[in-house]
Amino acid sequence: MTEVNKRRCKICGEEKNRILAGKFPNGRDKKWAGDNGKLWNGNICGDCNLKRAKEIMVKIRAKN
To answer: pTM score, two decimals?
Structure first.
């Protein structure tokens, strides 16, 4: 049985499903994905996490 729970994203504030998607290679930490298959980062949903990561990479690349 798949573990599913509701979480409120700390960026967008929406309540979304968080579904267990396996474990990371270290064997201890769990991977959590949303309904769309995008991985959560702590309490940040997959959609907000992608936007956040994109903004960070744009800033990093602009410095170089």
So the answer is: 0.82
